Amino acid sequence: MKNLPEAHLNKMKEMLSQEDYQIYLHGINDNYYRGIRINTLKCTAEKAKTLLPFELKETPFCENGFYIPFETQGLGNLPLHRAGGFYSQEPSAMSAVKVLDVQKGDRVLDLCAAPGGKSTQIAAALGGTGLLWSNEIVKSRANILLSNIERMGIPNAVVSSCRPDRLCEALAGCFDKVLVDAPCSGEGMFRRDDTAVSEWSAEHSLSCAERQLAILGSAADALREGGELVYSTCTFSREENEGVVEKFLETHHDFELVDCGVSFGRRALQKAVRILPADGGEGHFAAKLRKRGELEFNNYGQAYAGETPQLKAAFRMYDELFKDRPFGSALEITGDKILILPEIQPVPIFVNGSSKKGAERQLNGALRGTGILRAGLLFGEIKKNRIEPCHALFMAAKKEQLRSYVELSDGDERLERFFRGEEIEVDDSLRGFTAVLYEGITVGFGKAVGGVLKNRYPKGLRAV
What we know:
Blueprint: H1 6-15, H2 18-27, E1 35-38, H3 45-51, E2 57-58, E3 65-67, H4 79-82, E4 86-88, H5 95-100, E5 107-110, H6 117-126, E6 131-135, H7 139-151, E7 157-160, H8 164-170, E8 175-181, H9 194-198, H10 202-222, E9 223-233, H11 242-251, E10 255-258, E11 266-268, E12 272-275, E13 284-291, E14 303-304, H12 309-321, E15 331-334, E16 337-340, E17 349-350, E18 362-363, E19 372-375, E20 377-383, E21 386-389, H13 391-395, E22 405-408, H14 413-419, E23 424-425, E24 432-438, E25 441-449, E26 452-455
C-alpha cells in the first residue's frame, strides 16, 4: 500500500465526495496510465497503428492520444519514435492543449515548456503555420526541449531559456494563445513516482502556489487583447489550482474565466476542469482565461534575408535538396550556423545585409536578453568553405518535398545499421545529400557516393 502523506489525504477527503475519495484510495496502488500522442506533422494515427508492435486505445483527452499497454518496453528504440512519429506522454497531460484550442495561424507561447510534450502537441495543431515560442527557464531542460522540437520535425518554433517575467515583458501583447503549465507539487505523479510522494509537503504546495501566481501574472503580459490563456498543473491541490486562478482574477480585472469546452474530467470553479485517476488520467487541472477586448489583425513581424555570398550558396543548396523551399526563404547566418527563421515573428528580425550593407544580424531591441537557443530550423553549418546540412533540417521534411531519398522498411537490416551510424548500401544512381525514410517518414540523411550512403545520423542519437 502506497503510504501517502496524511495532510494530502485530508485535503483530498475535503475536496472529494466520500465515494470518490474511496475510489482514489483504492486506485492509488493500481498501475498508472501510459500513453503516446501521434505526431501528425510526420505520421497519421492510422499509419502509426500499422507500424507499432502494441495495441492503441483512444484517450478522451486528445484526438491523436492513445493509451498503451502498461508492460510496453523500449519505446525510445522504436523506428517510429526515432522518426518523431510519436511522443510518449501521460494521457491526461494532453488535456491542457486541447483546452487551449490552438488554430492554424495562431502565435502561441508555451511559457514552461520542458521537456516538450505540450509544445510538440501545439506544433501539431499549428501544422507548420503561425508561430510556437517554447520557453524553459532551466537551461539543461531547455536543451532537452530543443532536442524534442527537432525530433518531431517542427520548423516554426523559437526555443528560449529565460525568466518568465523577463520574456513576457519583452514580448508584451505578442501572442494569441499562451499556455502556463506551471511547476507544481506533482500530486498527479504519485502513482508513477515514489519520489513525488516523499518530496511532497503542505508547505511546498503553498510555495508552489506563490510561484505559480507570479508566473501567471507574467504570462498575462504576453497575451493580446481578446487572446486566451490556459493555466494548468499536474496536481490536485486547491491552493495551486482554484486558489491561484481566483487570486489572479482578483488583480487582473481585464481577464475572465471562460468554459474549457471539453467533456472529459470534472468541473472546478464551474468552468475549469480537474482530472483524477478515476477519469482516465493520472491527474491534471486546466482553467481557461480570456483577456477582454477584440482579437484584431496584427502586423506580424517578418524576417528579411540578405544577399551575402554565403547566403547565396545556402539558397543554392536549399534548392538542390528540396522542392519549392518548403520552410520559407528567411535564411539567416549567425556565426557558423545557418537558420531558416519562422516567417512570422513577434517583432521584425533583420538578417545579414538586409537593414544596411554588411550589417550583422540585428534583433529588435525588445528581444535582446530573452535567451533564445534556436529561432526556426537549423539548416546547416559552415565548415571551412562548404556548407554541411543538419539533421534537424531533414527531420522537418516530408517525402514529397525531398529531391533525393532512400526508403527503408520494417525488416530491412539497413535501418538498424543506419541508426547505429554505419554506412549502408543504396542505389548507384543516388548522388549527394540524401534523406533516409522509414516507411515514408524521414529519420535522417547521409551522403550518397558510388552506391554507399555515408551516414550523417547524429552521434548522440545513435543506437548502441
